[in-house]
Amino acid sequence: MEKIKEVIVVEGKTDTAIIKKLFDADTIETHGLAINDEILDLIEQANQSRGVIVLTDPDYPGMQIRNKIMERVPSIKHAFVDKKDAIGEKKLGIAEAREEAIIEALENVVTFSKDIQTLSWEEFISLDIIGSKERRLKIYDLFHLGYGNAKTLFKRLNMAHISKQDILKKLGEK
What we know:
Elements: E1 7-10, H1 13-22, E2 27-29, H2 37-49, E3 52-54, H3 60-72, E4 77-78, H4 99-107, E5 110-111, H5 121-126, H6 133-143, H7 150-159, H8 164-171
Parallel strand pairs: 1-2, 1-3, 3-4
Antiparallel strand pairs: 4-5
Subcellular location: Cytoplasm
Protein name: Ribonuclease M5
Enzyme class: hydrolase
C-alpha cells in the first residue's frame, strides 16, 4: 500500500475510510461546511510539518471548503476528482467516487500560487474556452484542475502557472 506523506483533508469519515482503504495516509475531516477555526488551525499545523492535500467533493460546498482552507493556508496542494467519477446512486462525493479516480487525483496533485500571472485574459479568450463548455472541461481534465466555470478555470490556470503555450501543447495544437 502506497504511503502518502502529506495529510489529506477530506469532508467526512466515509471519505477517510476510502482513503485509508487505498493508501497508508492520515486525514483531517472538515465535517463538511462545519469547518471551524480549530480545524483550520490543525490544517495549518499539518501543512507546516508534513504538507496538506485538499480532496473535497466536486460540488459547490466542496469548493467553499477548499476556498476557506486556501484563504488560511495558501500553500496547500490540491487533488480533484471529476464530478462524473464521483456520482453515486443518491449522492455526489469522494466516498461515492471510483477508486481509480481517487488514485488518479492523488497522483496528479497541483499547487496554486497567486504570485505570478502566466496567462492574460486576452490569451485566455483567444483559446476559445469561454464559448465552448466542451473545450473548458477538456482543459480542466488535462491539467487535473477540478471543475468550475470559465472564470474559475482562468484563475486556476494562473494559480498553477499554466501558460497559453502549455495549454496548446496539451491540446495538441502547437
